[in-house]
Design brief:
The structure is a homodimer of 725-residue chains. Chain A is of the alpha+beta class and 725 residues long. In chain A, 33% of the residues lie in helices and 24% in strands. The first copy, chain A, contains 18 helices and 30 strands. In chain A, α6 runs antiparallel to α9. Chain A is globular. Chains A and B meet through β22 and β23 of A and β22 and β23 of B.
């Protein structure tokens, strides 16, 4: 691929939040929003941390942002130069997503002459606690310059402030800011610099900031460069978080910036070796997909073996930094194919959070495991009963995401089964995976209702992925996933029975097997009607049939929520995302291709795509129906969500902006399975091109059953080569 | 009772709508709102008709108001004198509710002298199609007077206009206005007058009005009187509605006004003979109760044997003139006790509307009979899915009154069983009553769900009488009523089996008996918790506990709806009316008195009494618990709802004002069963005084098993005397 960058040459204040997402750098431990070094929290800068959360009062629990060790700004002849306050004459912001390096260059023309600042930063993929930046300033006139550089602990929070107490101090030239949360966690950011020139330096400590003031007289046209290194450690990493952050900075300062950068680039090179995608004939798609994969690679947990990824990655605190079904349904496959170790971590996260899921089921009077809709550590469900704010009254609205989106448990099971199918890793099943599968099946079993004179088993009062229709009966997707769960549990119990089990346990297992078999057979599975259409849930067909465009005309407020009891979509057939299409995308063999196509067409006209997950599910089904050209715009929509800075920004009055890993993962799935026709059957890897018209060649690598393959497809030829690793 | 009148001596424009209800006269065929003769539709006059409805476009279907044959106004020396346009110096409006006669007298002082108009009107209880009025004017100066009197066909409608076509004409001095509705019904009002003085008379016909202009020179202090007679017939009464209305007026004009009035008074005397209540020691209560009974007597259907009463009586079109559960739960007993023929009509109405209930059950995919929540003729359910308007958006809100208030069918059954218990009328059971009971049981049976590992039968996703909590599971009242229905159906089937039934039918009956027995045994009936409290529905105890006063503070708009998915009450324990108390009021032997009392106290603190039905249920339970003094204010609240012009006026943006027959009936039930301790056991009538402190003696008459009794109670003595009739 020739162009591995994204770049903006215009400075627009209104795009600061969006650029914070687009120009993000990260390494799975932390994500650094693509804001500028001088930005205060008004412009949403963040060093967003994975897997550490805090809750203040009765606000929502959310992940922590570390004190910002990159904070740097400049005054020239006593005047502040920075964005957005000082209008620049030129400004370029660039992300090299092959190297995962962020840079900016900004120039101001003043009556005295030109002033330029430049920076280059990365979030080390070699040492996951490290951030590094080279920052320089120059003027084409003689000037008195003050550079301020240090740590800003006045971090941006949505539901903060989280640091009830702050320690700011300096030791041997290393600055350190430690924040202590109300939940008793701590986050330390240490920072050190190398000065490449003579200057007078003071340390200034204010209430929430510790910075060096570096003062000097600048010669015209001479570059003055500082090299900054910051390290972040939390109390989740080590009890010595503060010491560790400082010593890490001290150690890093032993190396040159160039050396650290090289190590970082080498780590990324290795990542790209298994994850780059080549698309000949469509540079735009190639660029968009690899940019999407950059984001997935940037949030993959590598510092732990039991962490997952959150719905907005490491781009901030929206969606509470929580893990959703997005992981299993959209993101997991990318890691299964390119980095099975990360995939294992995603699965292991679910296994280790089973206790939370057991507790949640108890809370609702159910058996088994009801996984968190918005899962934080320990499986704690961060989702509240009031997840949307009513734009008309300003009141929180009672939503049923937490208590009725039962499909989450089956999604977890789906992920575990997929992981096993692709890796053959029986250990993870024996050591907990089977247990999750069985507990989730128990959960669904305890939810089932049956009418007295009926044979069918029903799941009542649920919310499917199409959240616009709350509290429906027999949601097609949910029922199908529950059936899958029952079948998986029968398998799990059979395998376990074959192991050396005590007779009592075996008897209990046999009893469960019988129940789950009956449930898998009896659970209501909607069948195509005379037109081949599968009803999304009981009564869906009686709802008002209206186009999305006409429905939109009913909006009284552009931010109003479409779902809930009275949303504009609730009484209509318009879905946020189409649950029947989601079902068919996961179980394409349930119905003949013709039925799949009818449903694709029917629900396409009735889907708002209010979720960034929607388009890729449609795209996958379109490919299955032999319509890659129909799939293409949907695929590009998914692949470009973050590139274009799109996606839905609001749910009622709640800001939901950020990056979209699930859209990225969904685009990837469409690419390899849909257009590439990638298929696994036992040990075998096959692929059958199903290209959009303009594509000539598709190349990517996949791991399967512990082996790495290179898939190389043209319209005429497919080669699948086993690589030695 | 010494005072059988209500009276207002003040004229307040803002009370016009309220006085229209308070000063209502009616005879079951029609209700004449207590507005003034000169009122145009802006002041809500109405000749509201029973049992005839119309629907315009997609507006709500509602009962018709007949063209107003009482319309009369006056001009003196060319100037209009009428209310509210011309401010009066004196004004008195009176209702004599013993005689059911409405009168008014209004005086204006002008620079030329005093002008007075006076009227007296009644809605004949002897001839139910007739209205009569004596109207006069005088001045204490010489004046040129024009009286305009005729028929105003520009009627007040909430969801009209209903008359797509109007015929206005005069024949032999009788005016006639016939309106033709969009549904093809017709309503004729004819009018004739007797002039007691010499005058010039012209008939003026405009688009929606036909009036006489009666012009004369008035001598000072001489009364000029017109006697008006109007008759109303509809196409539901006869195909010759027009002719019949005219001939009725012609026939009535043969008699003097005084003669017609005497016949009317005699009919009312007979009604009061069995329905008057005497309370010694509490004139206020005596007055309020008899006034309430006046309203019930005014709306009792006597012109048909298969009509019921509507929730707002004949006071207008609010609640669509529809029959609610109010009839069986609150109104029926008054008629059982005082006029069993009317009671039979109420029950027969339900039997004859079974086809509508069967259709409605089919509509929702259920077996059996699902009675209309808002029942019009044929059992048509006038209730829409959008019964409330959101004050914040102006949008209709999806309510679940129509589709989830399952308890209506059991209320119908309750009424039938009660009617049988009190009259011994097996004919009505054999000829249809049993069938209703069985079909309603089938309905509940088809609604039941069961969890796989549970024994209990559940009714899920229901709305109980407490409409503030929609879509709940196992509502205590609903489940208990369903159990009663199952038991009643077992009885019905057993009686039927004993009749000469074919073997096949008998076998089917036996099978149903078995199912219904199991259902009666297995349906979940909540039991008192450790504090003796019965949970209103699954999960009620987890709702926010808050006082009504504190909850009210959360209102953003005084008209906003408290219920629905997001109403201020929905997430709290605050009920519109307490379903557990409703349950205990109907089945007082289900639990020990102590439990009844605990629940009375618990739910009293958590009930808004947003329904005028609520207070009397609490009052009844308080009496059962031996707390008549606690019951007293609740009883008075029910008895005074219409007297004070109170009651809730709004549900969201929908006007729901009018008279409150259910509150009247509820007050009556509290009186005779609660304070009077009236009890029936087979053929036996017993009574045991349970008076509030200040009461000395209570006297009333009751019909039981075809016999009329006089019950006369003092604190010391009770006599029950069989009367010869």
């Amino acid at each position: 691929m020739s162009n591995w960058t994204i770049r903006t040459e215009k400075y627009e204040k209104k795009r600061i939040a969006e650029n914070g997402n687009r120009f993000l750098i990260g390494n799975g431990y932390m994500g650094i929003r693509g804001t500028l070094e001088e930005h205060t929290k008004a412009y949403l800068p963040a060093v967003n941390l994975a897997g550490i959360y805090d809750k203040v009062g009765d606000k929502w629990r959310e992940p922590l942002n570390a004190p910002n060790g990159l904070k740097t700004w400049v005054c020239v002849d006593g005047q502040y130069f920075g964005l957005p306050e000082t209008e620049p004459s030129e400004h370029v912001q660039t992300l090299d997503f092959r190297r995962a390096v962020h840079s900016r260059e900004t120039t101001w023309r003043t009556p005295k002459g030109k002033i330029t600042i430049q920076s280059l930063r990365f979030c080390s993929m070699e040492n996951l606690h490290l951030l590094a930046m080279e920052w320089c300033v120059w003027a084409d006139f003689e000037a008195s310059v003050d550079i301020y550089s240090g740590i800003d602990a006045d971090v941006w929070d949505i539901n903060g402030p989280h640091y009830a107490k702050l320690d700011l101090n300096e030791m041997n030239g290393v600055l350190c800011a430690t924040g202590y949360t109300s939940e008793g966690q701590a986050v330390s950011t240490a920072e050190g610099i190398r000065l490449q020139f003579e200057a007078h330096s003071d340390v200034l400590i204010s209430e929430q900031e510790i910075v060096r003031k570096i003062s000097f007289s600048a010669e015209p046209d001479r570059k003055y460069t500082i090299q900054k290194t910051a390290a972040v450690y939390t109390s989740k990493d080590t009890a010595d978080y503060r010491k560790k952050a400082i010593s890490e900075v001290e150690a890093a300062l032993e190396y040159s910036f160039e050396e650290s950068l090289a190590a970082h680039e080498k780590a990324w090179e290795k990542i790209w070796a298994s994850s780059t995608v080549t698309i000949q004939g469509d540079e735009k798609a190639e660029h968009a997909v690899n940019y999407s994969l950059y984001h997935l690679n940037s949030i993959a947990p590598r510092h732990a073996d039991n962490l997952s990824v959150s719905a907005r990655g490491l781009s901030g605190q929206t969606y509470k930094g929580a893990v959703f079904w997005d992981t299993e349904l959209f993101v997991l496959d990318f890691f299964l194919n390119t980095n099975p170790k990360v995939a294992r971590s995603l699965v292991q996260y679910r296994i280790e959070t089973l206790p939370g899921a057991l507790d949640k089921a108890r809370e609702y009077g159910c058996d088994g495991a009801f996984y968190a809709w918005e899962s934080q550590e320990g499986g704690f469900d961060a989702c509240t009963d009031f997840n949307v704010v009513d734009v008309f009254t300003g009141r929180p609205m009672r939503t049923h995401f937490r208590d009725k989106q039962y499909h989450i448990s089956a999604a977890v099971v789906y992920g575990i089964v997929e992981y096993y199918n692709r890796t053959g890793d029986m250990d993870i099943l024996i050591s907990g995976g089977f247990n999750v599968i069985i507990e989730c099946a128990k959960f669904y079993y305890s939810l089932i209702y049956k009418k007295l004179d009926d044979v069918a088993y029903s799941l009542l009062d649920v919310v499917g992925p199409d959240e616009y229709h709350e509290r429906v009966n027999n949601n097609g997707y949910t029922n199908r996933m529950a059936k899958f769960n029952f079948e998986s549990a029968v398998w799990a119990l059979s395998v376990l029975s074959e192991q050396q089990m005590a007779q009592a346990a075996k008897d209990e297992a046999d009893c469960l097997i019988e129940k789950f078999k009956a449930a898998a057979d009896s659970i209501f599975i909607a069948q195509p009607d005379e037109n081949g259409i599968i009803e999304q849930f009981d009564g869906y067909m009686k709802l008002e049939d209206i186009s999305v465009a006409d429905l939109k005309k009913r909006l009284l407020d552009e931010k109003e929520y479409w779902g809930g009891a009275y949303g504009i979509a609730s009484g209509t057939k318009i879905a946020k995302q189409a649950d029947v299409v989601a079902w068919l995308s996961l179980f394409p063999n349930d119905f003949p291709k013709a039925v799949m196509k009818e449903n694709y067409l029917y629900y396409m006209d009735r889907t708002e795509h209010g979720s960034s997950l929607s388009a890729s599910m449609f795209a996958g089904v379109a490919c299955r129906c032999g319509m890659p050209n129909s799939a293409y715009p949907l695929f590009m929509k998914s692949a470009c969500v973050d590139l274009k800075g799109g996606g839905k920004q609001w749910a009622g009055l709640i800001y939901i902006g950020g990056t979209h890993p699930a859209a990225a993962g969904g685009a990837y799935k469409t690419l390899v399975y849909g257009f590439g026709g990638l298929h696994f059957d036992g040990e075998t890897v096959t692929a059958k091109p199903n290209f959009p018209d303009n594509w000539e060649r598709l190349r990517f690598r996949v791991w399967h059953q512990g082996k790495l393959y290179e898939v190389d497809e043209t319209k005429q030829n497919t080669t699948i080569k086993l690589l030695s690793v």
